[in-house]
Amino acid sequence: MIRSASLKIALIAAAVLVAPNARAATSVVIINGNAAGVGFNDTTPVAPVGGNAGTTLGQQRLIAFQEAANRWGATLDSPEPIRIFATFEPLACTATQAVLGSAGARFIYSDFGSIGLYPGPVAAATWHGGPLATKRAGFDPDPTEGDGTSTPKVADIRARFNSELGKPGCLTGIFWYLGLDGRHGNDNDLVAVLLHEFGHGMGFQQFASVTTGQRIEEMNDVYNLHILDNTTGKYWFQMTDAERKASAINNGHVVFDGANVNAAVPGVLVGTPALFITSPPAIAGTYAVGTASFGGRLTIPGISGVVVRALDDANAAGPSTGDACSPILNDVAGKIALVDRGTCGFVVKVKNAQNAGATAVIVADNAAGPVAGMGGGDATITIASVRITLADGNTIKAQLAAGPVTATVGLNGAVTAGIDNHKALLYTPAAVSPGSTISHWDVSAYPNQLMEPFINGDLTHSVRPPEDLTLPLLYDIGWFPDADLDGAADADDACPTSNRAGSIVVGGINTGVPNATFTNGCTINDTVAQIFAGAKNHGGFVSGVAHLLDSLVAQGTITDAEKDRIQSAAAHTK
Length: 574
Ligand SMILES: [Zn+2]
Prior knowledge:
alpha/beta, Glucose Oxidase, domain 1, 4 domains, eight-stranded mixed β-sheet, five-stranded antiparallel β-sheet, 25 strands, binds zinc ion
């Protein structure tokens, strides 16, 4: 039985390969849904940017879409194309905040069938997003989209992106970066946002209401089977609606519990950003820091060195000698520069320090308050920087007046960000955020993850470890690698790269007899090749094939006449 429900889930992104045949992968097709002259069809001339050679705004948008589609296509193996119906159109925004875009599966399915070795549903009475359902069925379970009104099917995923971004009143001055190389500077990296939104479409999406806890037709989905509330010890599929509603706002205690994600967590979420003062003992210790959306990533063991206050001119660019708003005048080469927040942007300060040879930068706040991050973008900045509180900055400055200070800017491996009880935290803010709550990783993760609710400036375009947990999650909800697309997961496939030619070919002779796949994942062609490889001589090969053919006839897989044709071909091999 096929059930389908049309979904109206707006996923809010607030402020927010491999050669074919080596891996079969899948094709992800972008369907241009814009009318003439707008969106993907906007004919405004533009210059090539970051590997995107389109010559109109519309072309560049489409090329960026196809780049993200191809990355997913090279990552996931699916027997059918995944179609994304996409438009660029005006979406909600203010001068300081904008909906960048949204995407999700258009239909969800449960209790669908499967063909061949395809495994079918993860569990009975459990919702699967359309692309995942197709993957596990081995065919599109609903080629006419359920309502029978659109034939052939229009798309599996619907994507909308904001055409107004950067214009006055819509995140004013911050545009889409349409390059493919991630060097987005202060603009929004469209490819990264697309990878995020398409990730939702592939199944990074929970379907119960986060405001009421109510499930669609009171059935679970493949995602909520893995949502664990560490406070109650219950999974979402075990909860009442009221319990799910409460769990959705249990900030910091709701995790994704899946074998693939759990195994990947220690290699991806490796530590908490930190400043370690190593000497003198009077102020030695671990200091909390905010991170930057630009520059080098924090690491273990980090960057170590002597801390020096960077001094510049007090001028129109910045009124103090400690704000690093102008070129640095003293020697900070090979050292960690300490600068003050204020007047100019963080990227200006860090760039000036980098130009002077600093190996890392500590930005001390100029106002009391908790640690906070540093926004902005500049692809030419390669050194790491962190932000500390006003109080901690004053502590270091006081010590510098008395003598040298040494420090390390990096990650504290003893404390991991983004986990609770060893498992990856999901986004469950105290105030529920429909479209974002539970269907994202928590914002505390470091390094920043593709599927956090806010797109961070330091994202790579990777969807897999060691950078990212997205792909392990998709595997946990039911995707699996299947290089030869025979429906048997590579891990369980005796012939993971089968010869799946349509007919049986022996010694270069096409017998015209249909090839077939056995339950172990090997085809008849694979088996003939194995017999050839194992035979001592021609006679051994011919008798091995005869043995195989006898069993195929006995099973009813081939007829006696087909057996004769194959046997004849085998006899003619040299
Ligand atoms: Zn999202």
